[in-house]
Amino acid sequence: MTKSLPRGASPAAPDEELARRVAKGDAAAFEALMRRHNRTMFRTARAILRDDAEAEDALQEAYLQAFRTIGGFRGDAKFSTWMARVVANEALARLRKQVRRAAIVPLQGGVEVEEINPTTEPGMDQGPENAARRAEIRKLLEKRIDALPGAYRPVFMLRAVEEYSVEETAAILQIPEATVRSRFHRARSLLREKLASEVDLAYEEVFGFAGQRCDRIVATVMQRIGKEPR
């Protein structure tokens, strides 16, 4: 019987070691991996689907797929890259279904983007008195990212927000590295046309991953894993 990690523990074990434990049936090790990478994976799904609830559903399904197939993870790439590719594939599959449904029943409306002329205030990234302003910029940036064309949005999130390399982003999205570079450059240009220098101040806080959402996703996946045939 495989020895499991203590419930609620946050082990310092490398991803590769935890993955090996999961492959041997250690569900608690998978919980540790989910909690370690939850925010990044949610952001990846959210960038593609542009909807919180849909992104959560896609992430849960991707986790279950990963749990079932983690024996195929050989460590040729980082676990986070491997996992992000599983998440991206699930999200893209859902997006294709949405497109097919929209072709049958056209959706009304579209994404409207306001004209904004932000100004940069000296030292606005320092001190509690600027917290409200930072929050507004974060919301503004989230709206602008959502308004990016679908081809650019996942590339921007992976490169700028999650700081994946060009090579890793290409592997996750299964597109050429040159395409990653060109789309990322264009996405930044589109954002900076409206946000100017303020865009860099809120990267870390974009699409914040609240503890409640993290716990909900983990609890749901662990419950479903408990029903998996042994």
Would you mind describing this structure in some detail?
The protein is an all-alpha fold and 230 residues long. It has two domains: 108 residues, RNA polymerase sigma factor, region 2, helix turn helix motif (Rna Polymerase Sigma Factor, Chain: A, Orthogonal Bundle), CATH 1.10.1740; 78 residues, Orthogonal Bundle (Arc Repressor Mutant, subunit A). The chain has nine helices and no strands. The relative contact order is 0.14. About 12% of the residues have low confidence.
Please render the helix and strand layout as text.
Blueprint: H1 15-23, H2 27-49, H3 52-69, H4 79-104, H5 131-147, H6 153-161, H7 166-173, H8 177-195, H9 211-225
Low-confidence runs of at least 5 consecutive residues = 6-10, 102-124
Q: In the CATH hierarchy, what is the superfamily of the largest domain?
A: RNA polymerase sigma factor, region 2, helix turn helix motif
Number of helices: 9
Quick one: CATH class of the largest domain? Mainly Alpha
The CATH architecture name of the largest domain reads Orthogonal Bundle
In short, what is this structure?
This protein has 9 helices and no strands.
Name its key features.
Arc Repressor Mutant, subunit A; mainly alpha; single chain; 230 residues; Rna Polymerase Sigma Factor, Chain: A; 9 helices; 63% helix
